[in-house]
């Protein structure tokens, strides 16, 4: 599944090892966190084959549907260094 999703993302983004990326792996609600981590490991291995190491990686249930099984990938090109700083900025929320 990781290969299929990354192939589609690469087709659209034309991934480049000279660029920085942020990776978000989102569980849809019913996918156990352990499976999300295994999937993320597979994604990172596939990216490493292309000499891409995301500067930011986040895994968890962020946008969910009631007990929906599945995973989504968001791969964001960090076109501006400020974006990475913003992603790493400490925040407090009432949820998560």
TrEMBL record:
Residues 1-96 form the DhaK domain. Pfam families: Dak1. GO terms for molecular function: glycerone kinase activity. InterPro entries: DhaK_dom (IPR004006), Dihydroxyacetone_Kinase (IPR050861). GO terms for cellular component: cytosol. One of its GO terms (biological process) is glycerol catabolic process. This is DhaK domain-containing protein. It comes from Liquorilactobacillus vini DSM 20605.
């Amino acid at each position: 599944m990781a290969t299929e999703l990354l192939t589609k993302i690469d087709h659209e983004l034309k991934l480049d090892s000279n660029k920085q990326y942020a990776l978000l792996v989102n569980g849809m609600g019913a996918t156990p966190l352990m499976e999300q981590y295994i999937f993320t490991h597979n994604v990172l291995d596939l990216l490493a084959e292309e000499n891409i190491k995301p500067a930011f990686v986040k895994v968890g249930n962020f946008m969910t549907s009631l007990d929906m099984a599945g995973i989504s990938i968001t791969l964001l090109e960090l076109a501006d260094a400020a974006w990475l700083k913003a992603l790493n900025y400490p925040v407090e929320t009432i949820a998560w």
